[in-house]
Amino acid sequence: MRNIARRINRTQRSLVLIAGMVVATFAATMPATGASPETSVRAGGDTSAEQPVTEKAAREALEVAKKIKRTQSVRGSRQVVPGRHVAGRPDATLALTDLWNAKDSLDGSGKAAARELLARPRAATQTCSDVVCVHYTPGKGGNRATVAYAAQVRDVVTKVHNVYVRSGYRKPAADQAVTPGKVDIYLENLYDEGYYGYCAPETKVSKTAATAYCVLDNDYAASEYGSMNTPTENLRVTAAHEYFHAVQFAYDAGEDRWLMESTATWVEDEVYDSINDNRQYLAYGQLEDQRKPLDNSNASNLGIYGNWIFFRYLSERFTKKRGDLPEVILGIWNRAPSTYSTAAIRKSLAARGTTLKTQYARFAAANLAPSKSYSEGRAYYPPVYDGRTVLRAKKQTVKGKHTLKHLTYASQRLVPKKVGKGWKLKVKVDVARPAANTAVVTVFRTDGTRGVYYLKPNKSGVASKTIKGFSSKRIRKVEVTFANASSNFKCGKGTAFSCRGVASPDKATHRWSAKVYR
Length: 518
Prior knowledge:
- Keywords: Signal.
- The structure is a single chain.
- This protein is α+β, with helices and mostly antiparallel strands.
- Helix content is about 30%, strand content about 20%.
- The strands form five sheets. The protein has a six-stranded mixed β-sheet with strand order 1-5-6-4-3-2. Strands 9-11-16-13-14 form a five-stranded mixed β-sheet. Strands 10-19-12-15 form a four-stranded antiparallel β-sheet, with no helix packed on it.
- The protein is elongated, with a radius of gyration of 24 Å.
């Protein structure tokens, strides 16, 4: 889902995060699909089979979904609501998906309310290609759309559909009632609701998959959505994002929300490379906030959009394409129906002869120098670090520690100051639980080059790296980076992480020391 409230600058971050807490409670109460509370899933078992949702969680899902249609009551009568949109409003796609998964646990009146919220919009006519139908009411104003615009939407979504199919993805499961065999797109004035677009699952077609319909704005007028992008650009990236949700539902409509949103945000720039709308979310992902777990799906966490950068890293690291898109992300979604998000990633990487621990550490190191690590990295946010220590020309040893949650990293910066020739720096790390954790030392030289050294801790977690010529004229800084790649989970614990589980193990405390000598 693309929400108007997400188009914000960095100074507004705290306000949006606070507002987003309106749905955070629900995010922590929905159970994992297919994992009982006592199930321990360490290697990624089948967590996609349905599990009954508690009545309490189902009611909370209903209340969150009601907030989407804030100009419409559950009974469907239109209401006048002042203002345009509110920062922190629920993510429409995720809220409707959660409600769809929870609806069977509601009582009679709750089921009726859920049916109305999940119901398709109404439209007077349609224009179709061989794969999609766009439903709209001709005209201008209100929920109406022009004939020319409806045709443009039809052509854009058809192009997006063909890109995904050529790239090996499943076709969205099409309904057999409204327009049999085709995916339905509806046009409404979504600006008044506070959204760019959304998709919703509708009818179950397998243990994990469901049909879907999508809703896009009826014009993306610059007078409403601003001039950062043109109306056509907004249509294109929104169509790429939302239609990818329809594709995801054809795999697993109960998949972890972070994987859904991060990959949908990632694919925007893959389909429409020149628009770059997804860069605005990088401030909330691990490029800037590396201490928040990569798989944090809490409703108040905008990192589920900003962490598209992880999938950009993977797609630039593993460049083989199928059709128009990098194959590595397809490999993840091919595995998603039989497991949970991080296990699917592990399995996809294993098929390429590597591990999540290795790639997550490389991802952490890449984020220290985005301009040198990513094809468009010069336009990304500058790197961040967790600690900074200045080292002078004298024999000394400094030390410290970092405690990290699963799928987070931290970097300690060591800076030589007025250090001449002949000095050396020996970095020693003590990595906790080296089976899942590791460390990287990156040397940034004054000539613009860098050396990246992936340490290999012994069984006790100890490793070291000696940097010769540790002088201020040669070396600008040294970064010591710890990465906790723990990604096995005890599922069904009601958390906002992978499979609603608890990482096993989760926290780890790493220690470092740096000795300056000659």
